[in-house]
Amino acid sequence: MSAAVQDLRMTAVRVREETEESAAAPRREDELLAKRALAGERAAWDALIARHDRRVMVSLLAKGVRADRARELVQETWARLIQQQQRGLLTELRLPNLALTQAAFLAADDARRTRRESLSGSVEELAERQHPVDPAASAEKRLLSEEQLSRAHEALAQMSPSARNVFLLACDGQELPHAEVAVRVGLSTQRVRQILCEVRKRLRAALEEETHA
Amino acid sequence: MLKAHLTRDDAEQYILGALAPEKAAALEAHTVECEPCARLLQEEALLEEQAHEVAATFAPREHRVLRPAAWGGRRVAAGAMSALLAAAASLALVVHRGGTPPPTSLPPSAHASAGPVVEFDEGAEVPQVVMVACPDLATEAECTQSAVARGLLVLSPGGVAEVPRYEGHSGFPAGALPSGPASL
Ligand SMILES: [Zn+2]
Fold this sequence. Notes:
The complex is a heterodimer.
Chain A: H1 3-38, H2 42-62, H3 67-86, H4 97-119, H5 146-158, H6 161-170, H7 178-185, H8 189-212
Chain B: H1 8-15, H2 21-33, H3 35-57, E1 67-68, H4 78-87, E2 92-97, H5 108-112, E3 116-121, H6 140-149, E4 165-167, E5 182-183
Antiparallel strand pairs in B: 1-4, 2-3, 4-5
Helix pairs in contact in B: 1-3, 2-3
Bound molecules: zinc ion.
């Protein structure tokens, strides 16, 4: 085997190892952060909040919570989680799921209270959209039917591998910042967001198909 | 109302976290006063939540993985493997038994072995393929070059003394390979 090929092979193997490490690194980092947060370290909480805040906000907006109320509920969500940690009630910290569940609970509670108040006439009648959420809804609730999911998966399978890769990295639930996704795939942050917009467009079309059928 | 209505693009940029904080705050404030824009924002937020559900439930359904049987003992953690698969590009890996010569010239020794020629075919009609690559001793150089040229990941057998064999896995066309590991 020529030296050049030997070098190539070494390169290929090294690339593989780096990929494995870089895939594992954010997870280890997250686990470490969660551990420090569970120990009550404020800086660790701040880092976790910075990473997951947007997703929690979006989850509330998706339920139709008004933006100003959603902001308050997001803050309340983090305050409650920190409070639970301080009381020693948290044994593990799985984010963003724990925060999403807490936020959904608060939104449901809010909705119940709003409904009660409006029934008793103590506040003026609110538009339907301002009733945040059905009390039965939870963060675990599925948003999509099996049929919609399979359409969306089909659309995803037809995208270019690099677009799919960007999408999966950005939306795998780890809330990897787009700048980090960009570093991993060797693109600019702006390009990553462009790709995400393109993927969203295709997903929107795939999900809407059913409605028109 | 102070600010202009949201475009879908504004809402999307907000959802993706691409707006500067002041701009994001102004957008939120506008939706509090403007019902149509609030609905638009809700739609985009819902799509984002749905996208997460899609991503969480997506698994590549068809893999083509060719590997020398000699790698069987090698352990790759499931998480690491799925990351690898996600990172790998889509391609078809076609193995011909002593068939078509590869596009670039091989060292003479590789041809002389009459072993399989490994070549890549990026045909669009093949199902989604995620590939962790290929080599045996005879074709390792060619395979590695081809793969690296396409930015793919190559797994090389650790020990050169082992007799490499190929085995086909899910998704490989029936008849393209002998069933089960075959000695070359
Ligand atoms: Zn408006």
